[in-house]
Amino acid sequence: MRAETLITRFEQFAPQALAVPGDPIGLQIGRLDQPVHKVLVTLDVRPEVVQEAIANGADMIFAHHPAMFRPVQPLDLAVPQNEMYAECVRHGILVYAAHTNLDRAAGGMNDWLAQAMQLTAVRPFIDDGPEAGMGRIGELPQALRLADFAAQLKTTFALAGLRVIATDLNRQVRHIAVLGGDGGKFFRQAQLAGADVYVTGDVYYHTGHDMLAYDLPVIDPGHHIEAIMKKQVASMLQDWAATADWPITVLPSALNTDPFTFL
């Protein structure tokens, strides 16, 4: 089958129009009309992921984070990132990215995170602007101490560590807002939506002070919890392949691309 068949079906689920302006989603490397037989699903496109694709005979990489956030100029192959692009071209590997369109899609990234946290009555908490519909807010089955909820997140997402921004780890929390990735700037929207605690990654130092000033507890489990998409997207593509009788194999990347190590 041709890559555009799979991509067209996926974009019915998460249309490119859902992406925030300027997000470099879609085709990254390759041709839409090229045949694909095996798809590797990954959070990040890194040199080790490309080698994993080559080792597994994959001819398409489906990623959440775009491989090319910025134009490449010049294409100096001494630069590791550029050499990675060249490896994809040498081995005929198409690279496709679904980023903020997957974040905003109903049943997409933020719904998967909410589901993993066992939230109910889930709904978007960002109501306007280009990011409208991006995050989710829902309820835990029962209230927990903030410290216990943080510990639960470590187990849920198999984390070695996380950061908590709060003045009282014993306060009870039940209404949880979540936004995968870098969502610190939306903490006031989460609070105004009724969140007792906000879960998001990459919180900046000064934003953390603002969160304390507004008395909104925030848990930063890191950006890598979005790796939940690997199995979710792979499963979705496999289901579509079975229904449409696509002659493809889909597998989630087995690699951990989190750049951080907790000591």
TrEMBL record:
Coiled coil: none annotated. It holds the Pfam family DUF34_NIF3. SUPFAM superfamilies: NIF3 (NGG1p interacting factor 3)-like (SSF102705). Keywords: Metal-binding. The keyword Metal-binding applies. InterPro entries: DUF34/NIF3 (IPR002678), DUF34/NIF3_sf (IPR036069). NCBIfam families: YbgI_SA1388 (TIGR00486). Homohexamer. Belongs to the GTP cyclohydrolase I type 2/NIF3 family. This is GTP cyclohydrolase 1 type 2 homolog. It comes from Lacticaseibacillus baoqingensis.
